Amino acid sequence: MTVSPTSGFMSFLRINYGAHDNADHHINNKTKQFHQIVRTQIAKDIEVLFAYAKLPSPLLDACQYVMTGQGKLVRPLLVASAFASVNDDRWQNEAQPISPDISETMTQGNTANPLLENLLENDSDYDMARRAALAVELLHTYSLVHDDLPCMDDDALRRGQPTAHIVFTEATALLAGDVLQTLAFEVLTAELPTFAPFDAAIASQLLAVFAPRARRMVSGQTLDLNAEANPDIAQSQLEAVHRDKTGALIEAAMLMGGICAGATAQARMALQECAQHIGLAFQVQDDILDVTTSTDTLGKPAGSDEKLDKSTYVKLMGVEQATSYAQSLFNDGRAAILRELSGSKDTNALLALIEWLWSRKK
């Protein structure tokens, strides 16, 4: 059975991000609703994937445990928001002038432009975006499970709950990370019962983007470990670490969402440029939150960077300067999108997500 294209964030995109309402309170509620719909869809799709995979216990139990925690789901949200923003931009660029009556109805949120309906009607494109959202979250979660292991950061808390190797065993946690990594690639072409058949052309493009950035993420982790032994690391070296460790998967998420929506070459360049700024900003924020936010709020041990003597932006430039640097990176990310894609933070899902990321507290 194929999920109807009117389900999930697809239907929400039709009604809301295709209709332009400049009331700030409405936009805030709209963004929250969009994010909640994406989270709900991801939760359902994770269940479908694990039913398909038929993993033995305790491997299945560990995978379900780490994939159903209270994560922010930033990377799936980036996929969905890029998909939504590129689709909306195509509507803006291709739509013909419409009558004042239809325009007023759209502004009130009662219907969407018929061309936008047509752009979003392809089950396969939408379901490829669902696959991409799953892929990036699976890969990200695998990296967290391995990062928490005793041989790495040896953390006991993640996403507000005990880490996998604490709840299960170190061997089970290791294998859970391994299988999540393999599923991240398999999901792009698997015959899943609630998905349209995969689109081979889109899948090949997704893999071409995803695979090298998965490799870069692991390389970045190695560079991060190497940096722990270097107390005098320069900012350029620290940025090189995090452009791979954190930024690579954020790049993948935004590009994969754009690809599923049929982004032009120029739009993909804008998405990549934005992702490079946002990926770095995200890491700077993490460094700041590690020293300014409580463990209860973070959902992981606060102060762990200092405990492990990690090289951080706070250590390098202090909280105030690091905050200013993060803000400048977010501004550069917004500018990259605005140069190529239509809309504003009031009408563009990706710009709204960037605003949400800038204001995050965990």
Descriptive notes:
By secondary structure, the chain is mainly α. It contains 17 helices and 2 strands. The chain has helices spanning 8-17, 24-53, 59-67, 74-94, 100-107, 114-119, 123-147, 164-167, 170-186, 200-227, 235-245, 247-260, 265-292, 295-298, 304-307, 313-340, 349-358; strands spanning 157-158, 161-162. A two-stranded antiparallel sheet has the order 1-2. The model is unreliable at 1-6, 18-27 and 96-121 (pLDDT under 50).
Name the helix and strand elements from N-terminus to C-terminus, one letter apiece: HHHHHHHEEHHHHHHHHHH
Report the count of strand segments: 2
Proportion of helical residues: over 70%
Point out poorly predicted stretches.
1-6, 18-27, 96-121
Summed up, the helix count is 17
Largest sheet: 2 strands, antiparallel
Question: Strand share of the residues?
Answer: under 5%
CA-atom Rg in angstroms: 20 Å
Structural class determined from secondary elements: mainly alpha
Mean pLDDT across all residues, rounded?
84
Terminal residue distance: 38 Å
**Basic shape:** globular
Strand order of the largest sheet: 1-2
